[in-house]
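User: For a benchmark we're assembling, each entry needs the component sequences followed by a predicted structure for the full assembly. Here are entry 17's components. Please fill in the structure.
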Amino acid sequence: MLKNIYTNSLLIISIILFVISCSKGEPVVVHEHEVFTRVVLEVKKDGEINYTKYTFEVEGHDDHGHDDHGDDDHGDDDHGDEHAEVELNTDSTYHVGIFFYNDSDPDNIEDITLEVIEEADAHQVFYEMTEIPGFSIAAAPDDTKDSNGNPLFLKTTWTTTSETSGDVKAYLIHEPTSKTGSARADFGGATDAEIEFEVHIE
Amino acid sequence: MLHFIGKIIGNFFYRPKKCNCPSCSKLTKSVAGISLLASGLLVSQDCNLTLKGKVVDLHNNTPLVGALINIIGSNENFISNENGFFFIENQCKGVINLKISHLSCEDYMTEFDLNKSSSKNFFMEHHIESLKEIIVSENKLKNLSLTANSYSLSEIQKDRYSSGNLANALGLISGVSNLSTGNSVAKPVIHGMFGSRVGIIYDGVVLENQQWGQDHAPNVDLNAFDNIRLIKGAGLLKYTGDTPGGVIVLESSTPKISDSLYGKTIVNGMSNGQGLNIISSWTKSFQSGIYFKAQGTIKNNGDYSTSNYVLTNTGNNEKNFNLTLGRNKILKKLKINFSHYSQEIGILRSSHIGNVGDLLRAIQSNEPFVINPFSYEINFPKQFNKHYTSSVEYSARNSSKGKWVVKYNWQKNNRKEYDIRRGSDKYDPALDLTLNTHNLVSNYQWNSSNISYDLGLFSQFQDNYSNPDTGIKRLIPDYVKVRLGSFFTASYSIFNNLDLNLGFRFEHINNLVQKFYRNRRWNDENYEKDLGPYVIRETLSQKLVKRRLIFNNPSINFGVKSGIIPSHEVSLNFFYTQRAPDIAEMFSDGLHHAIASIEYGNPFLKSETTKKVVVNLQKKEGDFQYNFNPYFTTGKNYIVLEPAGVERTIRGAFPVWEYRSISSLLKGIDVDLSYRLNKNITYKNNTSWIEGVDKNTKTPLINIPPLTTNNQIQFSISKWKYFFGSINSKYVFSQNQFPNNNFYTSIIDNGSKVSKLVDISTPPEGYHDLGIDLNWGPYDLFSNKISFSLTFDNILNANYRNYLNRMRFYNDELGRNVMVQIKINH
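Assistant: Structure for entry 17:
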């Protein structure tokens, strides 16, 4: 009897194995949404027609082993790719737009800026700068505003005075706890995109 | 397959005609005089009713010849014929009490409400000598292992944690802690190991769902089980051979053979989270051995709070039920079970972050960024888990005390994780995994003199499906897994104070994995050389790899237990285990929002081999009792998750964590002490210490529980017969053995660019958690028993963080909680 049972069990196992081996199909490619792969800054000097386009497509991997967090590793995310340099003239005004894209599927590039505008209340762009004397970034008059009338900083006006340079970080913040502030920490929320560039005012 | 099951069921219900009761003929056939029952309560005098039926041996369905059926209170006696058939006539309407006797059977009393002529079969427990032993052994909880120490939770302990989860309840046992993600997701950690190194066995089958990563708790309702026990180490090769941490065994008991209905209902009300739970279980059993069990749990909790603030979006709710239909005939048992577990868990709103800059700000902040007023609402991010189980188990004994068991079990687990998303994806899960597992196991147990053997075969088929509609790349790829194997264990009681145990298990695992690799990762890791031949499809940015991975893993255990020292027990158990890497360890690929890290599997991992020695020195008698339990584990190809650089994306920088294999060493000791001061006061202590290192680099392993000591005073008051209580103090030291995985990130601070340390490694300070349990009862309430208890957790409302909680970067542990529990035994 016991032998019979085991024969039966083995038979069932082999049937299951047979069914399995044919049943699993090939997985389909996941069409990735919400992936920020490209940020574009369009910088246009007041009164001019042409704009300069700065494209940020940072993706890379730095191997630094697992136990060498020494001093020379400071700012790991800084090296590898040189920062973009945005060249500006002194005593000028610039109209700047920031745009977000998902180009993970090259045949179907998504403009996420549109979704950001659609959900204006849940988003905020913030420019954070090192000390750059005489340089300021303000919301442009035609900037998108949320339901409280707060500008999103998608379109900004940059004003320069004297020759100087400095670092700027731009963040797209999702569901910020505050829509205004002077440092990234004031906004809370989750960072969806973060780019860094240098401004050179000459 | 259907044919096979049909055969089993057919055999089970088949009733042979031949009487094989050896003592039938010996029964005296002298029958006393006959008279009618004249019940005083009887009004109607309709006395033409008949009752007919059969008397049957419960265990094998054979008819019992010559059973004497006596109508109590009268001299009427009837005798069953050679087919077990009896016929009682000229009865009046009303209740009649019957006593059925048969040689070598216990007398069976029953009452029967005779409204009209009826027929009924009576089942008798036919006590042959050998059967008596079986019944005795079936009714008592057998040791899980002859030589390895098993720890169990008492019913009171289990009920006390009825509102929590399995890991919380097991935390009462020394050497067991839990690795949690917030307060509702917890995995048990035994001797510093968790996840697939700890086996959870429920009703004889391994629970499948733990293998998806650290923030996935076992989907099982502890309230659906009667016994919860644990062995530290791979002591049960019958169930698993790859769990060097330990094995947790959840069992439900088989009802006794009798006509009865009983149940238990627990209602819990909690102040922290303003939660309410209702748990109820009912069992109806019949004299024929048929029984039916139903159990249900409903839990609903709102946002929990620390001592200072509300943890926004940490509510959870749970709806579970468990149905069992069975027939227990001692010699043959059939059990059909279905269970459904469904859980929705809110994840702290502030823990959804974008990049390491956000993580740094969270660590620097004392409080979560989002603190809203208390609410029951569960928003995003959240987890939604479902686990279904269906199983059929059949066991049969033969006369030579052998027992054969066959069991089929199907588990379906679905996990959906929701993140904070935008646009059309807003309400779509970010992760949607479905795991289907089929198990077919069969084993044969037998004894010869003082050795008992168990030999079994098992097979498993598992299919994992990652829903591609999430719009996020698969964290775990699609795969099918086939597991086949066999085990053999032998337990030998040489004489009263020397026991030996030997076990062997072999598993063959065959994984067929289909995974997409991004070209960037493919090139960075130089996969072309090793994985190139397996590419079956290419898109512009990805490659689909189809690979078969085969592992053949033997596991061995050996144990000896001796009672040589008077009133002491000494045991030594050795476990050799091989564990195939999890699919997650080999292929996970994704972003963990809460810790802002990218996790990558390692497709070249080999089976992990561990050797573990566990010693127990135990004194179980007298006022002073103790158990010293040192252990030592070495691991080869021991799989750990370690940081491996930083990946820069347009979201910002992320630390990358990769699976890697190392040589590990884990050692520790668990100490349990118990001292009974007098009949009213008992003092208990359990203390656990463990250390784990990478043998080559000498760096400590991550997530090793810190030194913990629990002190408990159990007290009762002589005057108050129905009261007992306990004061519980838990002190957890700060973990000072930890790997340094810190890294730097650059931020703009006060107008200048600075590099800041992101300290994800330093464990929080030690903490003290004081609790009080007070219990009253059981009191009689109609035909029920009712008990009350009042439990205070963190009564001092202390403020602390827990090293083993992945949410420690965001929030403190829970503040004070008062729980009122009402328990009714029906």
